[in-house]
Amino acid sequence: MDIQRFLATHDGVISRAQAHACGLSDDQIAWKVATGEWIRRAPGVYFAVAWPWAPAARVRVAAEWVRPVGALVGMSAAWWLGLGVASPHPVTVTAPPGSRRRAPSGVYLVRRDLRGDRIEYRGLWVASKALATLDAAVALGRDGQAFLDRVLQQRVVTLEELRATQARHLGRRGSATAHRLLVQAGDRAASEPERRFVALLRRGGIAGWRVNLEVTLTSGREAILDVAFPAVRFAIEVDGWAFHSERDRFVRDRSRKRALVADGWTVVEVTWDDLVNRPGEVLDEVRRTLARLGAVTR
Questions:
Q1: pTM of the predicted model, to two decimals?
Q2: Over 80: is that where the pLDDT of 82 sits?
Q3: 66, 84, 158, 219 — which has fewest CB within 10 A?
Q4: Residues 119, 128: contact at Cβ < 8 Å?
Q5: Is the pLDDT assigned to residue 249 strictly greater than 60?
Q6: pLDDT-derived band at 247, boundaries 50, 70, 90
Q7: Is the bond into 55 cis (omega within 30 degrees of 0)?
Q8: Contact (Cβ atoms closer than 8 angstroms) between residue 69 and residue 96
Q9: CA gyration radius for the chain?
């Protein structure tokens, strides 16, 4: 391939092996570095100064440096895979345990066995989508649950894939947090949206509610209500993104809602987006609904 075309399609980054494949000798590579046309960004990896030193170039340098035994991981992998994180920083790669490589400037190196959870994507070796999702969710801290739910909603990975990946990587740094996030994503009773909604009711001074109320409908069907005001038959379903990523679950939830309404329940849904962006409106709507139903909430 023509060297300029290669650089244009690789964000200005090229390894020594790639330069050889494009027909350059070691002397020609050395000349480009000596004249300032190329900068040596990592051992055996160069950057052509005619291109912008953009995030994609930084990520490519790290991935090419750790090739062929390593891969992008964490936020860098999630960013490169297009999982919806805003930045690849800190640029992080992994190498096998026992590796004596020393990371170049601007690159964070972890020594870790990926246990087969490594794929090639857009020309670079990266952690699998499931592993990158778990690691990014941990790295995002308080925003990790929303990120995890969003990835599940978009069906990039399934909850089962995440659980299997988590099982292969027990004991790694962040493993306990990843486990907690998966429990919350898969168990409505322990979901972050539900806990946030309960905290909102408490701050608003609203009483008379119960969490995970079990009711038996006229049809004999059993239902568990996320948050309910049993005295006035007012139920609130608190939905995280993950819970409607599966069609069968979506259909079952709608069927249950119809059965509850037929039995005289008022049922409303509150989403994660509501709780994050419109908590005041949510609280006001709950108060007005309770007032309409004649409830005493204090």
A1: 0.70
A2: yes
A3: 219
A4: yes
A5: no
A6: very low
A7: no
A8: yes
A9: 26
